[in-house]
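Q: what sequence does this backbone want?
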């Protein structure tokens, strides 16, 4: 870990996995009751299990905490046990989804019940990383920065002008390769994204963080006093929080709540092959391709078909003369789209929800 053992004893490090999302852009595989972090898209492990496994050996798996929705508790616990960790006391349940700021603050307050202070490393449970050794190096740097009082976000070096991510503009050098944060910018259009790449000091906002529990608690007190007061009262009073009480909390991301306002922010430029698997296209981009540049899973016969993602589950899929398409089949639904617009499936999911269709 770099620093002396005595320093580490003072500052235990807790990896906190955020596993509350639904992943509606990966419908029909990812759904309300089986969200993408619990699904095995890549290899033998679910995205959640891969996230846990890649923390070792830098972080202690026994310190893992997972924030998830009540309805995913049992499956999350089962998958956690499959990786060889006892889930007992390690899963923090939210009665309903309230975005990342309440989820992170809930974990902070629960950990501060048992520790005087700790370094927290926050990871969405549904992301993938190719270069694990480089990730470990950056993780060690982030922990050192957090110990010095910085609120660290991992900024991913962009290799192409992506318009689906927010960006972070880095400023002055701080320490261990990190930069101070000039500003956060919303998802840009193509032209603006190209400008950001040319500038060289803009990074994709990964949603991964490191900070000390006491520092982030104090930032919440300053910038989101109402959220802090309400949630702190709930955590101090009760073992479990009711849905009625939790719904009263603001639905706000940690970027809006803290990162865009804090003076302690640091962006750590990282280039370890990260993807948030936020859409069928990003899953396609991440997975290995066959000779025709296709990603094919399941019982599929494809003729004269190139640059496609075809995933079968229960039935045979036959494809002929397709290019740049996504075809995904499950027991009750089939999704077909051109690759570039496949993220628009989210609007279909919204319609299914409004129509109270069980396929939602």
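A:
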């Amino acid at each position: 870990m770099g620093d002396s053992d005595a320093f580490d004893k003072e500052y235990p490090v807790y990896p906190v996995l955020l596993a509350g999302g639904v992943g509606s852009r990966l419908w029909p595989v990812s759904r309300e009751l089986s969200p993408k972090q619990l699904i095995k898209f890549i290899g033998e492990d679910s995205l959640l299990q891969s996230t846990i496994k890649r923390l070792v050996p830098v972080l202690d798996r026994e310190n893992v905490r997972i924030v998830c929705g009540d309805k995913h508790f049992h499956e999350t616990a089962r998958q956690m046990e499959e990786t060889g960790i006892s889930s007992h006391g390690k899963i923090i349940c939210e009665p309903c989804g309230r975005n990342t700021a309440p989820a992170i603050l809930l974990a902070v307050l629960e950990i501060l019940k048992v520790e005087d202070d700790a370094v927290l490393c926050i990871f969405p449970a549904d992301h993938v990383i190719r270069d694990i050794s480089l990730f470990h190096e950056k993780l060690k740097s982030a922990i050192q920065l957090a110990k010095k009082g910085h609120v660290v976000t991992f900024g991913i070096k962009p290799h192409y002008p992506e318009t689906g991510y927010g960006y972070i503009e880095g400023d002055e050098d701080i320490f261990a390769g990190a930069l101070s944060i000039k500003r956060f910018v919303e998802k840009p259009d193509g032209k603006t994204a190209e400008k950001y790449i040319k500038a060289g000091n803009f990074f994709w906002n990964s949603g991964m963080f490191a900070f000390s529990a006491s520092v982030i608690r104090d930032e919440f007190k300053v910038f989101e006093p109402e959220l802090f007061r309400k949630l702190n009262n709930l955590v101090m009073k009760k073992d479990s929080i009711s849905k009625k009480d939790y719904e009263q909390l603001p639905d706000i991301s940690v970027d809006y709540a803290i990162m865009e306002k804090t003076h302690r922010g640091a962006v750590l430029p990282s280039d370890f092959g990260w993807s948030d698997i936020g859409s069928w296209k990003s899953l396609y981009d991440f997975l290995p391709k066959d000779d025709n540049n296709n990603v094919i899973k399941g019982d599929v016969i494809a003729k004269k078909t190139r640059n496609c993602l075809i995933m079968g589950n229960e039935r045979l899929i036959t494809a002929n003369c397709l290019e740049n398409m996504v075809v995904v089949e499950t027991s009750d639904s089939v999704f077909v789209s051109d690759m570039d617009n496949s993220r628009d499936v989210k609007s279909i999911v919204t319609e299914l929800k409004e129509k109270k269709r069980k396929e939602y």
